[in-house]
Amino acid sequence: MEAVVNDFVQVLRNHGLRVSPAESIDSLHALKHVGLGEREVVRDTLRATLVKNRDDAPTYDRLFDLYFDLRPSAEKPKARLKLPDHDHDHGAPPARLELGEEAGGEAPDSEDHSHEADDSTEMRKYFSEDRMRPSNDIHGEAERMRLSMFSQELILNRKPGALESALQRLTYHLKLRRSRNMFNPGGLVPEVGGEELPLDVSAVELEDLVGHLHDMEVDEALVAELEAQSENILRGLPELIKQMQERDKLLKKDARDDTELRRRSLRKMLHFSATEQRDMEAAVRRISRKIQGAKTRRLKEDRAGRISVPHTLRHNVRYEGVPFDPVLRKKREGKPRVALLCDVSLSTRNLARFWLHMVYQMQSLFSKVRTFVFVADVAEVTQLVEERSMNAAVDEIFSGRVIDADVNSDFGKAAEQFKNRYLPTINHRTTLVILGDGRNNGKNPNAAALEEIAQHARQTIWITPEARWGWRLGSCDMPLYEPICDRVEVVRTVEELAGVAEELVKSRV
Amino acid sequence: MFRSIEDVRERLAEQSYVSDNRLATVVFLATRLNKPILIEGPAGVGKTELAKSLAGATGRDLIRLQCYEGLDEAKALYEWEYSKQLLYTQVLREKIGQTLAPTEDLREAAEVLRGQEDIFFSENFLVERPILQAVHADERAVLLLDEIDRADEEFEAFLLEFLSDYQVSIPEIGTVKAKHPPVVILTSNRTRELSEALKRRCLHLQLDYPNGEVELQIVRMKAPDIGDELAGELVRTIQDLRTLDLRKAPSIGETLDWAQSLVVLNAPKLSKELIESTISVIAKYDRDAQKMLDHLGVNAKESRDLGQKEPTGERPEEAMYEMHRSVHKHAH
């Protein structure tokens, strides 16, 4: 059972769900209580213990169905696999008898694994087809699948206990190593990958395993095959890492010199992984600390701050003026008020996706964020972003239903409209953040309108995807807009955004 | 507390709380694993109600802590009762004098006094707040931390110790561990994302609007006077309205309000006039009401006497109105 749940957790992680070891242990405890009798109960149990984000729920459901795809044959797991609460005595479960196997001998060497191994052979019976099927679509780890396939065969033919536990240990170690990268699912982190996946430890494990196999006098051919398989894995690993590194280098290089390629690589970057989303969230959080509303003028009672003598005296009259309960007061930071103005035109389409992710993060973190999108017209999408899930909102915005997204961008016109319609939303506490490339396609830049808006705002930050040297090329009006804004930042990736956040935090705006 | 998942369902049903399998599973697990439940979902789907029903079903006390911005330990955990301490000191002044009389010098007096110190920092002088109450409870209580998303992040962090070990640390006394770990239920409306650490400690339950069948069951249970036909019609209408793009979709609470008001009005069936005159029960915004009426094909164009204009965002003053509304909304 442990192996199956671990494996499932691993699949979840590969799909970007964030499952901590504590949670997977919880799920095991939970399963002990509800038993494995009913599929839906197991589904709900695992969901309650493993899935903590609403947005992850559909992914979970899909994976659960895929992973625990029971064989449609006559076997009805219902009756058989009931774990009666705490009772761990499985006796001789018919599951194994059906295999035509002697369930007997417990593993000689697997003191602590024996029980789990026991469980897992049992469970595996139900999930085995899934495991044996080269289900690259969930795993992308064909090697390990093949390994477990072999273990399967071995179990069918030979003593189940020892080999199982040995294999389990091997996969477990591999898994452990992999799970160091668990927050970057799907990829072996290039910076650390090279060192983090050393051959020696796994090799030791493997020798161990092979030793076990010899001890057990298993069919030599099988052993040889198994050896070959495992070597493949180990040989494959550094290869894979190298490939990853190379690809990554390529991406980085492309991003530097060639704009066309850069765009392509950007598109890849904009395909958000869970890690990047978290990075983004952290970065936005840091930014937010900087983008505060004005400090309130009046002091408010607080848990920290200075002792206010008059308030303390008044408050402590009931204790005969003995200041038992000092009253502290300090200036409150106003809640950040942010207005985001986001370019979603064709020229920034790729980046707009990235912007909108950032917007989404911002809105989910702060209450007083208002979001506008523009191409040539401006529209408010605060509510849209609030109510829909991230992807749904982004799709809606690009669908052209909110504003016509397929015309040439015209910031001048957009600024004018914004000034006329939404200027009252901006006040001296609002930070205006404009996301756009400042390319007006030769239309009137209308810097005056932006200036008027900027005057109303507390500060104006322009975030542009284009590096400074690019502003002179084509019809870019950034040089006009730059003096009006308090800051102009070039942001293209999440890391850069984090960098900007860091800088904002360091220097007082 | 519960024997099985079925048992949970049945006993919650006795408290007229209709639950589905997922909810029952989570509740069952929470009682078995001693883990808190975190319930997320829109307003009015019965998050708080679950805690009440659970307390009712198990016959335990419900201890409730409504979270709000600025909530701190003094309100959630404990507070020293200074005035009582002071009163005791005064009343005992004479006694203290006697105790200290035989001492020779200040040092010795201070020593004696120190020996008696724990009298004044004992649990006698603690005002117990909800969390400490739950820890001290003689049997497993049900502790409801309502709308945890409204509290500050620091408060969330403060809860972590309690949620994982059911113990709290009081500097003057030490660590107090719950003899009978309470069943803790946290609810959140998702006005902000809760921290990973908190989520990790909890069983997670996402509650949404129920499907027609369950809702009908709820209506029958809570508003027994309503006719079968009317109830069915009502639930169908509500389910239909929820598919609209509304600012505030009608929740179960509103369904029940509506059912009740129809019972009071003694309506045999849902007519257009009836819908029009009672729409305000389920619609909390003028624009929503309009949308609902349009959707249901009730022509209310002439009778729009509610005084508010449909904002188009076209003119600045309307933008102002929009802004005002937005601010107002965020203030909730």
Explain this structure:
By secondary structure, chain A is α/β, with parallel strands linked by helices. In chain A, 55% of the residues lie in helices and 9% in strands. Chain A contains 22 helices and nine strands. In chain A, strands 6-5-4-7-8-9 form a six-stranded mixed β-sheet, sandwiched between helices. In chain A, strand 4, helix 16 and strand 5 form a beta-alpha-beta unit. Chain B has 332 residues and is α/β, with parallel strands linked by helices. Chain B has helices at 5-14, 21-33, 47-58, 73-76, 82-91, 93-100, 106-115, 130-136, 153-165, 196-201, 212-222, 228-242, 252-265, 272-282, 286-295, 316-330, and strands spanning 37-40, 62-66, 78-80, 126-128, 142-146, 167-170, 174-177, 183-188, 203-206. The longest helix of chain B has 15 residues, at 228-242. The radius of gyration of chain B is 27 Å and the shape is elongated. The model of chain B is unreliable at 301-332 (pLDDT under 50).
pLDDT < 50 stretches of chain A = 71-160, 175-203, 252-270
Strand composition percent of chain A: 5-15%
| Poorly predicted runs of chain B | 301-332
What's the helix count of chain A?
Answer: 22
Which class do the helix and strand fractions of chain A yield? alpha/beta
Largest interface: A-B, 43 and 41 residues
* Gross geometry of chain A: flat
Terminal Cα separation of chain B, in Å? 37 Å
Strand order of the largest sheet of chain A: 6-5-4-7-8-9
Average pLDDT over all residues of chain A: 65
Query: Helix-strand pattern of chain B, N to C?
Result: HHEHEHEHHHEHEHEEEHEHHHHHH
CATH level 3 topology of the largest domain in chain B = Rossmann fold
Q: Structurally, how many domains make up the residues of chain B?
A: 3
The overall number of domains of chain A is 3
Helix proportion of chain A: 55-70%
Radius of gyration of chain A: 30 Å
